[in-house]
Amino acid sequence: MPFVALLDANVLYPVWLCDALLRMAETEVFQVRWSEKILKEASRNIKQNNPNIDPATIDRRFRQMKESFAEALVTGYEPLEPGLTNHPKDRHVLAAAIVGRADVIVTKNLDDFPAEALEPYEVDVQHPDVFLCNQWELDEEVMVAAVDRWVADLSNPPQTLEQLLQKLEQHTPQFCKIVKSSELAQ
User: Fold this and answer.
1) Side-chain-side CA neighbours of residue 183 (13 Å)
2) Where are the strands (E) in 112-184, listed by range?
3) Mind listing the pLDDT tens digit for each residue in 56-90?
4) 61-73 in b/e burial notation, b at 16+ Cβ within 10 A?
5) Rounded to 5, what percent of the chain is helix, strand, coil?
6) 3-class state of residue 5 by DSSP
7) Which residues are CB-neighbours of 4 under 8 A, at least 6 positions away?
8) Average pLDDT for residues 130-151, to the nearest whole number?
9) CA distance 100 to 173
């Protein structure tokens, strides 16, 4: 069975980071998981912080994500929440990871998931930068092809690899450094 990663709302919010994670998931290097609560939190935060973006555009994005990754939605995790010991606001995330049989939670809120809270469930937690670097290390050939396809798909407006990495760099500086040193950047 492929590696399974539950994506927290804070990695689905920045569009370039979300796009990077989902494009890598499309390669089937890993399977993605999330809950409806995680998706709603990400959508709500995008709408609150970007009033200039049409809410229908944001809703369409999340609808497309759910359609493209139909197997990603985790349900039935709520009964686990009260017994978990990680940060209360993120217990739903750990519960969804457990029910979704995730190997790792990808989040920027590492402090909300202390090792002692995760250990009984054999779930790891990784920052998105570390996670993407690890995926690159596991299967560089597939990851190179995914980034290459991503650049080719950027047509409105067209973007170079360098332009794409500039947008992604604030979220994943080490991953961008790896990509810049790869055959893609040559």
Assistant:
1) 9
2) 124-126
3) 999 999 999 999 999 999 999 999 999 999 999 99
4) bbeebeeebeebe
5) 65, 10, 25
6) strand
7) 30, 31, 32, 33, 100, 101, 102, 103, 104
8) 93
9) 29
